[in-house]
Every structure is written in C-alpha cells, then in structure tokens.
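Slide 14.
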Amino acid sequence: MTRFVLGGGGAMGAFQAGALLGLLERGVVPDALYGCSAGALNAAFLAARPDASRARELASWWSDGRHTSVLAPTWRSHLRGLPSVLRDRRGVLDSAPLRRLVAANVAAHDLSELAVPLSVTTTCLDCMQARHHTRGPIVDALVASCALPGIFSPVRLPDGHEHVDGGVVAGVPVAAALDDSGPDDTVVVLDCGLAPVTCTRPGDQTPCNIGDVGRGDYLAPGDSGPGALEVVLRAFTVARAVANRATVGGTVADPRVVVVPHIGDAWSAGLLAEVPRGPRDFTQSAALIEAGRLAAQLGLSSGVR
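Slide 15: predicted structure.
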C-alpha cells in the first residue's frame, strides 16, 4: 500500500496541492491518506477521487481567493466574527465560513464514506494528545483539525472531548501512518510547513537532489505584524515547527518513508523565486502550486527519500 501523509501549513497548502498533482501525474496514487490542518483539507478533497483530474481541481481551488480567504484570518475577518466571539468568547473568528467551505467541496457526511481511507489528526484538549479520526462527521473533524487555538473555537467531537488544530502536537502525522503500515508499504510525506521537518542533511550537495542554484541556507519566515492576532499566529507557527520535529523524530530514517521535496528545497533549487511571508500569505499560490508539482516530479526522478 501507498500511504500519503499531508502536514499542515496554512497558505503553503498550495505547494502541497501542486506536489499531489505532480505525484498523481506520474502515477503515484494513495491507497490511504493522513492529514492535519490544511493537509487534512487537501487529503479530504483528494480522498473523494484520487486521480490527476481531481488533483487539478484541488490546485484550481487553491488558486481561487474566494476559497483561501477563509484560511487567512485578518483584522477585517476578526471584526466580521465579532458576534460569534461575543456568543462564545473562546475564538476570535467564526468557524461557519470554514464549515460551509468544507461542506461545499467534500461530498461526504462521514469520514468512512470517502473512496480512499482518510485519517484526520486533531489535538484533544482534554487528553492532551493527538487523535487520528477515521470515522465521524467529516465537517466537524476537518474544522477541528484546522481550529487554531484562540482563533477558532474548539470543536466537540463524538468522543465527547474538545479538539483543536492537530498541529499543536502532530502537524505531520507520519507516526500514525507508520503504525498502520506493513513492512512492504510506502509512506509518502508531503510536509508543507515553512519550517520543514525533513530538512536537507548537513553536507548534502543539493537540496533533496533536485538541483542547487547556490542561494545559501534556507531560513523559514513567519507571520509578522503589529497586532495581538499576528503575535498569536506567529507563536503558533513556531510551536508547530518544534512539535513537528519532535513528533517526526527519526521516522524519516525508516526505509518505508519517502520524503517529497519541501518548500525550502524548491526555493534552494530555483523552482520558487520567492518564499511566502508566512502561512497566511496567499499571494503566491500559483507559483507555489507549480513549484510543488515540479519538486515532486524531480524528487521522484532522483529517487529522493
């Protein structure tokens, strides 16, 4: 079996969508999907029909600002969500637009109804652990997986517990995929974080063997701005990067794991002219999609792990 693991990363989900398109164009098709946050949205979209045509639809989805604006909380959306804040007081933004977005783009009511098995990762606030959901209301699970703490309210799932963004503890749920895998399975990791888990090893001549234009060391940017909301989001970006590294740990050394080149690799190799400013920068979606597609295909050609 081939299992795809899709990590979170906000606007960087466009790069991941491009990588998915690149893989499917080359005939690499998932038998199971594991997703967290933005990666869970991509995984759910693809799980309905995992082929190149569906992947192209997903890439188009990321190019449409009417969709992606839901994933980019700003002070304007903060003000629009004020009535929800006054009712709940546990989230800055109203999750209703995200719920409508999921319902309109994923033709299933329960996770178990999808054509390809899907596991959606959340963080259980009561258990303080990552949870990997394969059954239950799909909209609730996906909204919970994207619920940045303090930005969106926690979601109570059928287990009776409140859940938030899986990126708090397991933004790249590769461990869950390995737990389900046999010795002959392949686990394909698509990490779309700006501070990737699978960094190029010291001493390597080229980033993930996809080329090198001599740009020097890659430095992951983060959200910045003058307001409290921006500080919260930037802090979460940092915390997610640390948690991802701790969660993934040594799993990338597992012979079953294949690592698709990430944003840092694409930038270093000259496939991406400019790195986005942060997880809410959707201005480069088209460039990210194409860079992800090329990076994935070049990575396959070089046999990169």
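Speaker note: The longest helix spans residues 228-248.
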